[in-house]
Design brief:
This protein has five helices and no strands. The chain is mainly α and 117 residues long.
Length: 117
């Protein structure tokens, strides 16, 4: 079961990353981001939410071992930023809370069950 859930999380990570990587405009709309007259925001989505997530998910599937915990650390950072934003920025709910769960639950799973002994 550990391996199956890890693989599901890696595939989910790749899927979210692939969306931002290949269709940053769609990802921007899904995340309520708006253009400002520059395409730099699309570049940021393609790189940080796209390529980074695809690479992390693929690393887990190819390398395994310690990369599962590294993905958990990445999700912990995302969940921490999300919860901070929920309190400070007051984003629309339940959308922000759902995204928090999609970050916090994989973080908890990956760190709890894959942390090196």
């Amino acid at each position: 079961m550990l391996t199956a859930v890890n693989i599901i999380i890696a595939v989910m990570t790749i899927a979210f990353g692939a969306m931002a990587f290949s269709a940053p405009g769609y990802a921007a709309r899904a995340l309520d981001l708006a253009p400002t007259g520059s395409t730099m925001g699309l570049t940021e989505l393609r790189a940080s939410a796209g390529g980074l997530f695809v690479a992390m998910g693929l690393a887990c599937l190819i390398v395994g071992d310690w990369t599962w915990a590294a993905l958990g650390i990445a999700y912990t950072g995302a969940a921490t930023g999300r919860v901070l934003s929920i309190f400070i920025d007051r984003p629309p709910q339940p959308k922000a809370f759902v995204w928090f769960l999609l970050e916090a639950l994989p973080a908890a799973w990956l760190l709890t069950l894959n942390w090196p002994a």
